Each structure stands twice: as C-alpha cells, then as structure tokens.
Amino acid sequence: MPSEIITGLKFGSIGGGAVHLCIDMQLMFATGTKWSSPAIGKALPAIRSICDRFAAKTIFTRFICPHNLGQTKGQWTRFYAESSSMLCDVMDPAMLGLLPELQEFCPPAAIVDRQVFSAFASPELRTLLAERSIDTLVISGLETDVCVLATTLSAIDRGYRVILARDALASSNAEGHSAALEGVFPRFDQQIELIGTETLLREWSLTKKS
User: Fold this and answer.
1) What are the distances in angstroms from CA 98 to CA 40, 124, 149?
2) What distance in Å separates the CA atoms of residue 54 and residue 38, rounded to the nearest whole number?
3) Is 209 part of any domain?
4) How far apart are CA 45 and CA 105, in angstroms?
5) 38 vs 58, 198, 207, CA distance in Å?
6) In whole angstroms, what is the distance from residue 4 CA to residue 81 CA?
7) Can you give the pLDDT at residue 87?
8) By C-alpha distance, which of 143, 154, 206 is closest to 180?
9) Does residue 93 sit within a domain?
10) Domains in the chain: how many in total?
11) Residues 92, 105, 158, 174: is their CA dihedral positive or negative?
C-alpha cells in the first residue's frame, strides 16, 4: 500500500524538539451542528492517550467561525453562505470550545485559534513554535483531508518534520480520509512519517533531540 512509504520513524527518535499539535477537536464537530460527525469519536481515545502523557507538550488548535457574512470575503463568503448556521451570530459560541474530554488538559496544554484551514495562519502558533525551538510536529485531530492536510502542507513548507498519528486522525468523509493517508501524504516521503499512537508513546523521549 502507498502509506507504507511513510510508515514508521524513518528519521530517528522523537525528542525534546517536538510538540503534539492537535487540530480542531471541538464541540461543533461532534454534536448539534451541520458540521458534526461521529468520526471525531474515532480519534478521541488515541488523542487522550497522547495528552495524558504529553499535556505540557500539546497545542490545541480551534477553527473559529466569523460572526456574520460581513466578516468574510472571497470564497469564504460563498463557503459560509452554504453553512450559515455555523456563523457565530447564529451558532452557540460555546460550540467553538474543545471537547470536554480534552478541556482538562488546559493548562498546561495551550490553545491557539485561527479562521482558515491551516493552523499556521495563527500568529500565536508560529510564535509558540519559535519560542520553544520546535523542529518536529506530531499531528492529530481532524479533518484528515481538510485542516490536518492544510496544516501539514504548511508545516512542510516551513521545514518541520511532520509525524502523523494515524489512529488519532479522523474525517467525516471516509473517502477523503483514505485518499489523504494513502494518496497525498505518501507523496511527501522525505517530510512525513506515519505511526500509531502506541509507537508514539513508546518512542517519544522528552530528553532527547530528534
């Protein structure tokens, strides 16, 4: 299978220069909205196990919807016109929060926000990574084929080593999830590694540089 090209820690151990970047594990993707999906529950147990071990090394991202169409432009206006129930003037703003099962990790885990697909649109994230001298991103969350994909591509462009925790990723679109894992990510075999959470927990040492 194509994913075998990027499976395993090809570039050595995971060390102190790594953080766990958890993408958009929010209430609005779990229940009660147009964008909710049971798929989020598939990734939650693995994500919790990572956070249990590495809460201080975890950064949660949140996708923040605009209040109304007047705060959008270009194709984002079209995007939210099709999903007007997700605008914060309509939707309960509490839905932007993390799942209750993950809120307990904050602090010490950090939270950063942005309004587009790539987490690197957040100046706060870029600052945190620079201040901590981060060179490796362990990425989990959703959606595999949207925000995780956009964030991964941005990380690659910035020269980060990217490790995807396969069982800690999910998407509401099963075909898109498989396409990203089996078709897109293997194209970046010199930047991306794909491992399971069990391997991650065994191989990540906070005292060694990767």
Assistant:
1) 12, 18, 20
2) 25
3) no
4) 14
5) 23, 23, 37
6) 40
7) 95
8) 143
9) yes
10) 1
11) negative
Classify residue 99 by its DSSP letter: P
CB contact at 8 A, 38 and 96: no
Do the Cβ atoms of 162 and 191 come closer than 8 Å?
Answer: yes
- 210 domain residue, yes or no: no
Could you count the other beta carbons within 10 Å of the beta carbon of residue 135? 16
Q: What are phi and psi of 198, to 5 degrees?
A: -60, -45
- Residue found under tokens 């929060």: 97
DSSP count for the chain of H helices, then E strands: 7, 6
138 token code pair = 């362990």
Which residues constitute the domain of residue 80? Answer: 2-203
Q: Residue 166, SS3?
A: strand
SS3 61: strand
Q: Is the pLDDT of residue 209 over 50?
A: no
Can you give the CATH number for the domain in which 122 is found? Answer: 3.40.50.850
Quote the DSSP letter at residue 14. B
Give dist(CA 71, CA 79) in Å, integer.
12
- 8 A C-beta contact, residue 168 and residue 138: no
pLDDT digits (tens, 9 = 90+) for 67-117: 999 999 999 999 999 999 999 999 998 999 999 999 999 999 999 999 999
